[in-house]
Amino acid sequence: MRRFAVGAGLAVAALAAHSGAQAGGMNYCDRHAELSATQQDKLLRFAALIKGEMEASGSAVALVSRSGLDLSRFGQRYSHAGLALQDNPNAPWSVRQLYYACDERAPRLFDQGMAGFLMGTDNPAVGYVSLLFVPGAAGAELARSALDKPRALQLLSPHYSANAYPFDLRYQNCNQWVAELLAAAWGAAGAAPGAITRAGSQAWLKAQGYEPSLIDVGNPALMLVGNFIPFVHHDDHPREDVSRWRYQVSMPASVEAFVRAQVPQATRVEFCHNDRQMVVRRGGPPMVEGCQAEAGDTVLALD
């Protein structure tokens, strides 16, 4: 499928390292892992496990993040986030998300079932998913805002940048759209769609102490790669950051941390899979690399 969620695959270095393409011939949009029948079956079983957890949660909405691009060198496990909604008109618990339509060269909002959401990974051998369930009035307002199409579209920028700076209106990435929707839900509850603006959402996020993730590229040559990628930009970032070869970007980790600060009652469930097993962790610290189970985890063996 040519249209797929590029997500916050901002890490110019990671993009460059994965593609191995030469400048002028880079075709990042069409990159995706080819899945074998066995891998597809595993991901379908993994999706069913996650959906079962959502159905049993008693919540109406969850912030959902998945691993995709390998951003481990930047300290990021998750690259792409969206909102899983119990009452999504596409299907229960489908994920509403921003994706970059490569053939149209434009960002779009897209509802996708959990299985399709997981198929966007670059590494089908090992994968991680985080669910953050938002309870009570905060969750109800977030679900209403996410399902309100005029409001959701009001926050969609026509200009996509995978490494968009969170406090500038020139561009937007997938995780930044989620962050701005949170602001519209909690900072402008009850406002008419026409009164919802990206500028207002960004101002509210800043006032609430939202802290984007700091991505230290650490190499000027890798920063230059962005000049050859149509959905990577530098002109919205503070000059001081660019001169230090770093970006401040909305990533799943920063959005999740903000939600937990705003709604301390939010509960987290993390999932992973490898070639041998699927593991579920309810609460507790993040899972270790390689999907290794620890005390208290639920483990389901893969035949």
Summarize the structure.
The protein has 303 residues and is of the alpha+beta class. Helices cover 32% and strands 19% of the residues. It is built from ten helices and ten strands.
Outline the structure in words:
This protein is α+β, with helices and mostly antiparallel strands. The chain has one domain. Helices cover 32% and strands 19% of the residues. The chain contains 10 helices and 10 strands. The chain has helices at residues 12-19, 37-55, 114-118, 136-147, 149-154, 174-187, 198-207, 220-225, 239-243, 252-262, and strands at 61-66, 80-85, 94-101, 106-112, 127-133, 213-216, 246-249, 267-273, 277-282, 298-301. The chain has an 8-stranded antiparallel sheet with strand order 4-3-2-1-5-8-9-10, with helices on both faces. It has a two-stranded antiparallel ribbon with strand order 6-7. α4 (136-147) packs across α6 and α6 (174-187) packs across α7. The longest helix is centred in the N-terminal third of the chain and has 19 residues, at 37-55. The protein is globular and about 50 Å long. Mean pLDDT is 87; it is low at 1-13 and 15-28.
